[in-house]
Design brief:
The model has no long low-confidence stretch (mean pLDDT 91). The chain is built from 3 helices and 15 strands. It is 16% helix and 34% strand. The protein has 196 residues and is α+β, with helices and mostly antiparallel strands. The strands form 3 sheets. Strands 1, 2, 4, 5, 6, 8, 12 and 15 form an 8-stranded antiparallel β-sheet that branches.
Length: 196
């Protein structure tokens, strides 16, 4: 697909304290090794991080209006009507998530939860919960626009603590290795029926 915009950034859209509240809630949860897709075993060649899951309505009440705004402002106009459970992600020194797409090959099966079945990941959202250069070094988010739109690889330098980035889930991206400190983020995937 060809779009005018392949990501949309909200620089600091949340009420004061939101990011710290989310981080505090994420740190209360038991974190496990992050997996890829439906894999049951870790795939360290591609991903090395810890995750937990957050389901608070407060998250979606604050995030969903911004996703709708990004969807409209970026010109994607994706049909979507549900979120997967939000993923709190922790990257310590030496951890990373190499090149990947959030999109899945097939829609969720008919025997899945009613709000998921028959749907695909249309858009992804990343909210950075740590300050680059202060809380961590390395861990840069890069997007591969060459694989979808011939514009090469771009380091997303605008991503700061509290900023929110939304993009189509088919765009390849990675989190480079954290070289110092800890990088925390919240990731959401927004579901809708297949494109065609």
């Amino acid at each position: 697909m060809i779009f005018k915009n392949y990501y949309w950034l909200h620089p600091n859209p949340f009420y004061k304290g939101f990011v710290n509240d989310v981080k505090k809630e994420g740190l209360k949860q038991r974190r496990v090794v992050g997996l890829i897709g439906d894999n049951k075993e870790p795939t360290r060649k591609v991903r090395n991080s810890k995750v937990s899951w957050l389901k608070s309505p407060l998250l979606y009440n604050n995030i969903n209006p911004l996703v709708h705004e990004a969807n409209r402002a970026a010109g994607w106009h994706c049909q979507w009507d549900w979120n997967e459970t939000a993923q709190f992600t922790e990257y310590n020194k030496g951890q990373y998530y190499d090149w990947h797409r959030d999109a899945r090959k097939d829609p969720y099966p008919q025997n899945h939860d009613t709000n998921y079945k028959g749907k695909i990941r249309k858009m992804s959202t990343i909210i950075l919960l740590s300050e680059p250069g202060k809380d961590f070094e390395g861990g840069e988010l890069e997007m591969d626009f060459d694989s979808c739109c011939g514009e090469g690889i771009k380091k997303i330098k605008e991503l700061k603590k509290g900023s929110m980035l939304t993009f189509p889930s088919f765009v390849r991206h990675r989190v480079k290795t954290v070289t110092k400190g800890t990088r925390y983020s919240l990731v959401l995937w927004h579901l809708g029926f297949p494109w065609c």
